[in-house]
Each structure stands twice: as C-alpha cells, then as structure tokens.
Design brief:
The chain has 10 helices and 12 strands. With 323 residues, it is of the alpha/beta class. It is globular.
Length: 323
C-alpha cells in the first residue's frame, strides 16, 4: 500500500527566480535562509513534484495522461505527445528550441498537423491530431519515444534525450519524414518572413497507454498543467485550476497541497505568491515548503530557517556578472 504524503507541507512550482530576477530584497533574503540549491539534471514538473511527495514518476504514457488532463477522459489507445520545436543547426551540434505556450498558436499548429496527417498519416499507419495547442501522435503498435517534454531539452542538444532500445529506427525514420514534410510549409515560410523560428520538427515523447484509474492518497492539486491534472485524475485525486493566489489554495486545502503557477506568470505574480507562502509558514498554516523554480532552483523552507540570521544573500539569486 502506498504511504500517505506529508499533509502539513506544500510543493509549489514557480517561475524562474535566479539571476537577480527577484526585486524584493526581503524575499531574496528569506530564500537565502532556506536550503537553496540548483538541481544538476533537468527534469519535468511532473517528475519533480512526484519525487517531492514520494511517488514514482511514470516511465511511459505521459502523453496519454496529458490528454486525460485536457479532456477529462482516459484515452484508450497508445498515444505520444508531438510538441512543436525548432532545431537550430550550430557549428558542432543541433540546438533544440521548445516552441510551447503561445509561440505556436492553434491557427498555425492546426494546419501543420493537418498537413502531416494528409501526407504521412494516410499511408504510414500514424495518426496526427491537435487538442488546442497540444499535438499528438497515435500508432497501433507504438514506437520508442523520448521520456521528457521538449521544455526540458530547451536550449540543449537533443541527442542525449532521444530514445534508445527497441523501435529506435522507427522513431528516427518518422522524424526524418516529419522534418521533410514540414520544410517549406506555408506556415513556416510565413514565420521565417516575420523573423520567427519555424516549426521544423516535432519532439515525440511520453508514448504509451494511460494507466487504469486507481485510488491513492494525493494532496490537492491546484494547477492548469494538463499533465499534472491527468496524473492526479488517474489517482482519483482532487484537481482544481490555479485559483490565482496561494490564499485560494488554502481556502480549499485542509492542510498541504501542490500548486503550479502558470508558465506565463510574471515577476509580480511570483513575488505575490512568495509573500503569501512566507505568511502561511510563519502563521503555522504550513510546516514546510518545497519551492521548485523553473530555472532549476529548489528551496526547502522550514519555520526554523528564520533563525539563520547570518544568511542574507545567495549567489544563486544574485544577478549574473556581465562579461
């Protein structure tokens, strides 16, 4: 039986805070007093959150969970995520740029995916489809896929994140066909003419089938992230949209919770959230905080850390030196 989670702690995924982004010096000092580190290996939000609450991360089927979170229904077939990316040729490598969020609106992604369905899907046994700004690949027998979303690979060489093992040849062949089909598509020509990065490939990841739904103790989740929402639904956990504030989470949660701020949240929203979390900790509403920042910083904060009066600054939060 799965052990229960710590009901007096909260895990919150937040925008980047390093390199001098925080303007409020009191908040920067508060974080400097915590156990603040930079993670060495990039991981996605789902894997990071599950590690904090003592749950194993799924090794396959993440795309099906994401669709589950989007639609509210469990997908019944094998499915993989097909995220739009720009592969930039550099002197000695390729660099992947994740084109997520509003970078590829539905009006552009839809025609690209429809074109792939017409040119590849009709003759290859693959299926391409969009739900909003999320694209998916279906395949009767499945293929090897990457294990992490494109955002984890952003600004990196993709080679080390590509799948290994069985069916790798099918993955490589499909990517080659996708890239040829996308080359010189009118959407990409318009993007290039406007000075924007073209969608010259797709990042195929998280392939598999959705798990059967089961009941497992989970902290309440407050998030607009469909992958997290899908995982929580697969465990019959409480899922609510991000309410816009930590106070909104505390109004619903009996004790601890998991929350994610939207990717689009700015510095004002980040600092407002940190202020609320600081107050909740000081007022004994929560006993521990784990803050996961999207630039790789992790802060574990306890009330007793306020006694670390000698810690006022952290190099991890300081502005970068200009060359």
């Amino acid at each position: 039986m799965t052990e229960s989670y710590d009901k007096n702690s909260s895990v919150v995924v937040l925008p980047a805070a390093g390199h001098g982004r925080l303007r409020d010096r009191a908040l920067a000092s508060w974080l400097a007093q915590s156990d603040l580190v930079r993670t060495a290996t990039p991981v996605d939000a789902l894997a990071s959150v599950l590690a904090e609450i003592g749950r194993p991360a799924p090794t396959s089927g993440q795309a099906a969970l994401r669709m589950w979170g989007q639609t509210g229904d469990r997908p019944a077939t094998w499915i993989a995520a097909a995220d739009p990316v720009y592969l930039e040729p550099q002197l000695d490598r390729l660099c992947l740029h994740a084109l997520d969020g509003g970078q590829v609106p539905v009006a552009e992604l839809g025609p690209l995916i429809d074109h792939l369905q017409r040119t590849l899907g009709s003759r290859s046994g693959y299926g391409f489809a969009c739900i909003g700004t999320a694209a998916y690949l279906t395949c009767q027998h499945g293929i090897a896929t990457a294990g992490v979303p494109a955002g984890v690979v952003d600004q990196r060489a993709p080679d080390e994140f590509l799948p290994r093992g069985d069916n790798v040849a099918s993955h490589r062949r499909l990517l080659s066909e996708i890239e040829m089909a996308l080359h010189e598509h009118e959407v990409n020509l318009a993007r290039i003419a406007a000075g924007r990065q073209p969608v010259n490939s797709l990042w195929i990841w998280g392939g598999g089938v959705a798990p059967e739904q089961q009941t497992e103790p989970q902290p309440p989740l407050f998030s607009d992230d469909p992958l997290l929402a899908g995982y929580w639904r697969s465990r019959t956990g409480l899922v609510e949209p991000w309410p816009g504030s930590i106070a909104g989470c505390l109004d619903v949660a009996v004790a601890g919770f998991v929350a994610t701020l939207p990717d689009s949240a700015g510095v004002d929203e980040l600092e407002a959230c940190l202020h609320e979390l600081r107050i909740a900790l000081r007022s004994h509403r929560l006993s521990k905080l784990v803050l996961l920042f999207r630039d790789g910083l992790r802060a574990e904060v306890h009330r007793a850390h306020a006694l670390r009066v000698w810690r006022r600054n952290s190099d991890l939060l300081a502005p970068q030196d200009k060359a």
